[in-house]
Amino acid sequence: MGPRELLSALVGCLLLSVMSGCGGASPTSPPTPVAPQPIVEPAPPKPTGPAPRLGVIRILAFGDSMTEGVDSPALPSAGFSSTLLLSPGRSQSYPFKLQSMIAGRYTDQTIAVFNEGIAGKQVRDDRDRFNQAMSAAHPDLILLLEGANDLGGPLAAGEGVNARITVVVGSLEDMVRDAGFRGIPVMIGTLPPQRAGGPKATKLAVFPGINSSITEMAGKKGAQVVDFSQLPLSLIGADGLHPSEAGYQRMAEIWFEAIKARFEPALQ
Predict the structure, then answer these.
(1) Domain boundaries in the chain?
(2) Helix axes 245-263, 94-105, angle to 10 degrees
(3) How far apart are CA 214 and CA 38, in angstroms?
(4) What is the pLDDT of residues 144-167, one digit of tens each?
(5) Fold of 58-263
(6) Where is pLDDT greater, at 54 or 44?
(7) In this model, does residue 28 exceed pLDDT 70?
(8) Cβ-based neighbours of 103, under 8 Å, separated by 6 or more
(9) Shortest CA distance to 175 belongs to which of 185, 166, 160?
(10) What are the strands of the beta sheet with 141-145, ordered from one edge?
(11) Whole-prediction pTM value?
């Protein structure tokens, strides 16, 4: 091989070594192109506004077995008749269920619901206990539901239906007035319907004007009416008088919506 051929071979080898290595190795395949990846923008943070707050923190639920939480069939009332509980009471009662609903929404506050319902109580005889409960609980709001037991007893000789209604509504009015003297707002419930023929159903059907009379009195005295008269009969237990546990749940929901609408300020 002459000098010129040798020089050409060296130059060729040099070029091959740069491209794919000298020695006859075949050039490598070009790399597979990689598709560009989309740019994923981070999700914007969710707005975190202030937690809802309620304008009352101590709520007194006062009444008879429908507040205590007697269901159908009725449970014994041991422990509920002698002392003030200052607790939400039985788990099936509307105050207990209301407490759970309030705690779940107003997480930045400690709000207490006190169950002062006692089975068998009549509103005409309950004014002193009502005042004792207010003194013990120091409530910011009172939920008042009572009067069914007063309608269950027989009418006295010469006593008319209107006279019995007057006694019941007048006794509720006394309680509303006593709360007003202390500056405590009252929400008063109308009486739920009763299942005719139930063994514990009272004579509510004989007093069709009772709820309208309660509503009229409340309007005059500044109490807010919470209506339970339209509670479905399917939520009244077999005894005809007391709501089932599902009925107490619905009552708690109705109370809760009324309290929220009045005492939860709108966020600006």
Answers:
(1) 58-263
(2) 50
(3) 68
(4) 999 999 998 788 888 888 999 999
(5) Rossmann fold (3.40.50)
(6) 54
(7) no
(8) 111
(9) 185
(10) 112-117, 58-63, 141-145, 186-189, 224-226
(11) 0.78
pLDDT in tens, 198-257: 888 888 888 889 999 999 999 999 999 999 999 999 999 989 999 999 999 999 999 999
